[in-house]
Amino acid sequence: MSKVAIDVPPKGGFSFDLCRRNEMLSKKGVQAPSFLKTGTTIVGLVFQSSAATAAPPTLPPPPPLPLLKPSSASPPPTISTKIKTTLYFFVPIPGAQPHAVILDVEERWLLRHLRVPTRILQRFGSKLSPDGVILGADTRATEGPIVADKNCEKIHFMAPNIYCCGAGTAADTEAVTGIFNFNVLYMVSSQLKLHRYHTGRESRVVTALTLLKSHLFSYQGYVQAALVLGGVDVTGPHLHTIYPHGSTDTLPFVTMGSGSLAAMAIFESKYREGLTRDEGVNLVTEAICSGIFNDLGSGSNVDVCVITKGNTDYLRNHKLPNPRTYVNAKGYSFTKKTEVLLTKITPLREKVEVIEGGDAMEE
Amino acid sequence: MGTSKNSAYAYQIVGGWDRLASLNTWGYPYVTGTSVIGIKYKDGILMTADMGGSYGSTLRYKSVERMKPVGKHSLLGASGEISDFQEILSYLDELILYDNMWDDGNSLGPKEVHNYLTRVMYNRRNKFNPLWNSLVLGGIKNGQKYLGTVNMIGVHFEDNHVATGFGNHLARPILRDEWHENLSFEEGVKLLEKCMRVLLYRDRSAVNKLQIAKITEEGVTLSKPYALKTFWQFSAFQNPTVGAEGSW
């Protein structure tokens, strides 16, 4: 190689000095270090605790009710004002042609056994128990076979009412690609904030969804972020998955990551409509624990985030099922220190003069 | 050809030995069965498998019995290549016949049959000519319950609950949570049905036609094929994008 050692001041931009060496090494068979991937279990769940639609999933569907003939025995809910809302939905009577039906609140209550999107129920009743979205994630970040971070955060902030779980290389913070992929979420979160300032309204989940999916699609899958996006906005609770190539799904319950099958096994066997908030949190915790204990790429603790209208609870380390087993009860005592001869405390605050309203920094 | 599942045998495929691939030696499976799940319960072993034989991505055969009794004390369930399963049954037939001809009052128990299968599978893998199956062998002899598994590379172990294929990922988490000693027959069947239902929802090669087999001291009982009840009426499935126009 060149024997000259010139002291050239570094120019800006990428330094290609090591490219020849890297190519020579890879020709010799040395693998380039791979991305810091996180095996992961992330899950999401929409809970809507309306007593009307709680049915365990293994029963056959209820017999079809006669069309538009309300049973007179049941009382309407105690809603003080009679709200006439225009609702369109399809009545699932087998054999009948689907058609649009307009009902008011009382009629809707009387037909409550029909399966309709319960988001509609939410529009005219905060009398009904609150519903929202619960996100869950494990806390292990792996670098190949090694656990790089035992307690990382995989539930990221997008907006006060929207949170996003990340799997794949999205969830690590160490490697370059991690920071790059985090940029997806930082970027979208900043874009949402600017949009909020511009419109003066709360962000919608579909906005975040569209921003994320168009970004990921434009990178054709090279940004390996698999996300579970959940939030509650004016239109109701929403839960979406976003795959690295940019496709999305909208579902009542989702799992992603290497532990997704273990978590999905729990969801498929135990999910039902009409979960209350606590039942939902328990189910999500169970699903994440299933991922933690049955998948090698997931582990440590369970993070949960419950988003409801107007309120978000970020339960960091909601469950710690993997405590350190052997902890010395005596604690750790340091060996004999050097003798203390003199203690003098000088508060530094007196040494610094803070000028209020001083000149801004000049650049 | 030469995909990830064949990576261990890549050199033959790279060599282009097509005439041997047509004998389905170390090639890849053609007609496959999906998962088998087995659990120990109070009186013996319960095993379940669906009745589908997939030809690649087509569901070609829908009445394939993937569980068969072996001798007096064992029950064998297989996933993977069906023709190799039939070959294994023929080997076991010979084995049991040879054992019966001794007429010495002793009969091969599940442990012995499992060991035999392990040797066969491992030897074939060493010759780069595997029997492309994951087997579940369960049985009970003299009150001793036994449930073991062997797969095509010769990995074998015994446990209280085993599953092959997708069942490993979807059913074992449930079994680890909910299996306990001395399940009654009804509880065991309910547990297996729970696992099969999840597999039906989430495994693309599963069919809704399954058999449950039980083996006790009295012998083997294979149930008639039946279907599970499934639930698709979640309200969020009816109109998933209400309020989220633009998504799907």
TrEMBL record, chain A:
Keywords: Cytoplasm, Hydrolase, Nucleus, Protease, Proteasome, Threonine protease
Classification via Pfam families: Proteasome (PF00227)
Oligomer status and interactors: Component of the 20S core complex of the 26S proteasome. The 26S proteasome is composed of a core protease (CP), known as the 20S proteasome, capped at one or both ends by the 19S regulatory particle (RP/PA700). The 20S proteasome core is composed of 28 subunits that are arranged in four stacked rings, resulting in a barrel-shaped structure. The two end rings are each formed by seven alpha subunits, and the two central rings are each formed by seven beta subunits. The catalytic chamber with the active sites is on the inside of the barrel.
The protein's Enzyme Commission number: 3.4.25.1
Organism: Actinidia rufa
GO molecular function (one): threonine-type endopeptidase activity
Principal subcellular localization: nucleus
Catalytic reaction equation(s): Cleavage of peptide bonds with very broad specificity
GO CC annotations on file: cytoplasm; nucleus; proteasome core complex
Subcellular location: Nucleus
Stretch list, region Disordered: 55-77
Protein name stated in the entry: proteasome endopeptidase complex
InterPro entries: Ntn_hydrolases_N (IPR029055), Pept_T1A_subB (IPR000243), Proteasome_sua/b (IPR001353), Proteasome_suB-type (IPR023333)
Compositional bias segments (type: Pro residues): 57-77
Tagged with keyword Cytoplasm: yes
Domain of life: Eukaryota
GO biological process: proteolysis involved in protein catabolic process
UniProtKB/TrEMBL annotation, chain B:
GO biological process terms on file: proteolysis involved in protein catabolic process
Database matches in Pfam families: Proteasome
Species name: Actinidia rufa
KW Hydrolase (keyword) present: no
Lineage, broadest ranks: Eukaryota, Viridiplantae, Streptophyta, Embryophyta, Tracheophyta
SUPFAM superfamilies, A to Z: N-terminal nucleophile aminohydrolases (Ntn hydrolases)
Keywords from the UniProt entry: Cytoplasm, Nucleus, Proteasome
PROSITE patterns with a match to the protein in the record: PROTEASOME_BETA_2
CDD domains listed in its UniProt record: proteasome_beta_type_4
Protein name: Proteasome subunit beta
InterPro entries, per the entry: Ntn_hydrolases_N, Proteasome_alpha, Proteasome_beta4, Proteasome_sua/b, Proteasome_suB-type
Residue runs in coiled coils: none
Role noted for this protein: Non-catalytic component of the proteasome.
Subcellular location as annotated: Cytoplasm; Nucleus
Cellular component terms (Gene Ontology): cytoplasm; nucleus; proteasome core complex, beta-subunit complex
Listed Gene3D superfamilies: Glutamine Phosphoribosylpyrophosphate, subunit 1, domain 1
Family designation: Belongs to the peptidase T1B family.
